[in-house]
Write a structure and sequence with these properties.
The complex is a heterodimer. Chain A is α+β, with helices and mostly antiparallel strands. Chain A has 8 helices and 8 strands; from the N terminus they run H-H-H-H-H-H-H-E-E-E-E-E-E-H-E-E. Chain A has helices spanning about 5-20, 25-35, 35-50, 65-75, 80-85, 95-115, 120-130, 210; strands spanning about 135-140, 150-155, 160-165, 175-180, 190-195, 200-205, 215-225, 235-245. An 8-stranded antiparallel sheet of chain A has the order 5-4-7-8-1-2-3-6. In chain A, helix 1 packs across helix 3. The longest helix of chain A has 18 residues, at about 95-115. Chain A is rod-shaped. Residues about 80-95 of chain A have low confidence and may be disordered. Chain B is mostly helical. Chain B contains 13 helices and 4 strands. Chain B has helices spanning about 50, 55-65, 70-75, 80-105, 105-125, 140-155, 160-165, 170-180, 185-195, 200-205, 210-220, 225-230, 235-255, and strands spanning about 1-10, 15-20, 130, 135. Chain B has a two-stranded antiparallel ribbon with strand order 1-2. Chain B has a two-stranded antiparallel sheet with strand order 3-4. The longest helix of chain B has 23 residues, at about 80-105. Chain B is globular. Classes of the chains: A alpha+beta, B mainly alpha. At the A-B interface, helix 1, helix 3, helix 4 and helix 5 of A face helix 4, helix 5, helix 6, helix 9 and helix 11 of B.
Amino acid sequence: LKYTNPTLLDHLASTYVLGTLAGGARRRFERLLSERHDLRLLVGQWEQRLAQLAASVPPQQPSPDVWKKIEQRTRGKAKPWGVFGSFGIPLVPVFSGLGGLLGGVVLCGALLLAFPTLLISVDQLAMRAGERLPQSYVGLLVDENANGKVLLSSLRHGRTATIKAIGPITPPAQGHLILWALPPQGPALRIGEVPAKGSAEFEMAQSSEQLLAKVSKLVVTLEDSVEPQQIGSRIVFTGNCAKLW
Amino acid sequence: VVRRDFFAINANNHWASFVFEETPVAFRKPIHGSKIDHFGAPNYGFAPSLLCLLRNHFLCNMLDNLASLEDLIQKAGVGDYDSFAVLYDRTNAHLFGIAMRLLRNKPVAEDVLQEAFLSVWKHAKNYRCEVDGRQFAGMSWLISIVRNKCLDALRSSGYRREETMIDVDGESDRESADMRWSAPSADQLLDQSVNKLKIADCFQSLESGPRQSLALAYYQGLSHSEISAQMGAPIGSVKSWVRRGLMKLKACLAKAGVVN
């Protein structure tokens, strides 16, 4: 058979849709359908025509189990990103398999660029941008003439305290200059030894927030030992502790 | 913004009317020049998807109910499961009626309906409501899927029409018997359809042979040889009658402007 005669093709399409085209002829026609656009168009037209006859068939309600079974067999295969899909954007392949991994990396990168505060705090961001100092505890200690001598600084949630000599400090002939934090209640907290010049760092037992939150006064005393158990009475410098945020 | 009243069938197959505002650009040309197709769905192509982004389910459900079958199929094609569920809700009774008419066996018809909707979910992405400027209604596409599944079942080696008329359990026996007793004949259904389509006058000139052959083939899914056996006519005559019936239907529908 040569499938070029329009009348023959229309007849085949009509009997195919009606269902009277059977056996080998139906199978041959189905094969042709997958290859020929003109045949699909003819079939579509006959589907339109014959569907009009279905309007008189009385509707009947199937059992609710039918939908349950359909749901069981299709729900797991529902494509994600349905909302985006509504717009015809083929996101599904992008977010599966290796594409999903790459897509995730790209998405995370884009999110971080757009919303850097997701992983970095506002303060860290501002600090990195040079807009403000980080949240810290700072203290300035002066001598009896109000000359600045020692600077204490520590990040709010850090455990390292930095003691910096900012003015000429004459080292004592005997003993050590020790910096203390004085909480309103309880014993003084020893921070560390004041260097004669430059700065020195000390590891604290807890974070600055935990140790210095209620501290307002700082003192440097002259002590016989580098690690005195309690504060002595020979005060050399005094100062205040402040929150830098 | 245009304010319009729509009538649509809601999820429970009840008629409901809605007032909906939409921009004129969102309108699509009505199919077959009719605002509402014979299955109650308005054929306008406004897209509820934009509002559904808000995930307001009440609004989404209402808009899904207003959406045309074509929209629902296309949305199901891109994985929108809600639209697929609404599509089933809106069409299952009609499609099941067709399957029952052809198969006359509830469990088999339900299996066919199930398979048909699996096929719809799988192939919805291939559905095109317009090809080469011609409109193709979603319901026609769905009916074709169901009918083809029914025909496959009827032609399968394991399916014997006589046995399926009576089911094994008593309740189904009664259902089948009731259905046989109350179901309109294929001839009656064809008459009802041509009257509904307002092509009765045109169709009147068709002789009883072609008319009955067409009715038996469409409403009962009979093959040429089965029609021949039922009508007691030579198979050659039946083939000729079926062909004449189809040509007449085509001419009458075109004349009435229903389908060209």
